[in-house]
Amino acid sequence: MDTIAQKTIWASLFVLSFGLTGKATLAQVATPRPTPVSGKVTDPPKAAPAKPHKVWTDDDVTTLRTPADQYSAEKAAQEEAAAATAKAKADAAKSATAPANYPAGVKPAHAALSDPKSTEEADKMIAWENRDLDAQADYVRQMQECASNSSGAGRDHCLAEKARMEGVMAQTRQEVKNLKTQKTELEKPKPQQ
After folding, report:
1. HEC string of 90-155?
2. Category of 189 on φ-ψ map: left (φ > 0), alpha (ψ -120 to 50) or beta
3. Virtual CA dihedral for 142, 143, 145, 151, nearest 10 degrees?
4. pLDDT, tens digit only, all 193 positions of the chain
5. 3-state secondary structure of 48
6. Were both Cys, which of 10, 71, 116, 162 would link to 121 (CB 3.0–4.6 Å)?
């Protein structure tokens, strides 16, 4: 009995589904289709023309900035210019304080060894400079040996370093000479007032 009931249910489902599908098909057939006008061929509808790709330029970006953004940008530019000016002044002041007889790129390593206040202080400074000269002379000898034992780029480096150090030695000799002059000035009796 189960099989007869099942067959009946399946049969009714089949009829129902066919009936619904048939109605849809009849509905489609019943609606009139537009027919083309005789002699004219209808083109399919054209797609909208593609928009050209927008390329942003600096002009476009500036129009997007708010007045607050404009102010911030101008203020930042002014601060950068002020910082650059201050740095240039500081560099000029540094170069003005260094003696003019130093070669380019060589700064006095011991600027504190100048202007002694007494003859004892001058003697200590002169002794310091003489020890410095001895060490520099040893370094020049080492660079000369390096240059004679090397070839190519190593030799060129040793010779360049030797020449640089000879320039430093010349400056140190000048400092010793200046200290000796300052010492003789200190040794002179001061006029009484």
Report:
1. HHHHHHHHCCCCCCCCCCCCCCCCCCCCCHHHHHHHHHHHHHHHHHHHHHHHHHHHHHHHCCCHHH
2. beta
3. 150
4. 567 878 888 777 776 676 655 555 555 555 555 555 555 556 666 667 778 787 777 766 667 778 888 889 899 999 999 888 888 888 776 665 555 555 555 555 555 567 788 888 888 889 999 999 999 999 999 999 988 998 888 899 999 999 999 999 999 999 999 899 988 888 888 777 6
5. coil
6. 116
Cβ contacts of 51 within 8 Å, gap of 6 or more: none
Q: Return the structure tokens found at 168.
A: 């430093």
d(CA 108, CA 98): 7
CA angle (155, 159, 162) in 5-degree steps: 140
Q: pTM higher than 0.90 for the full model?
A: no
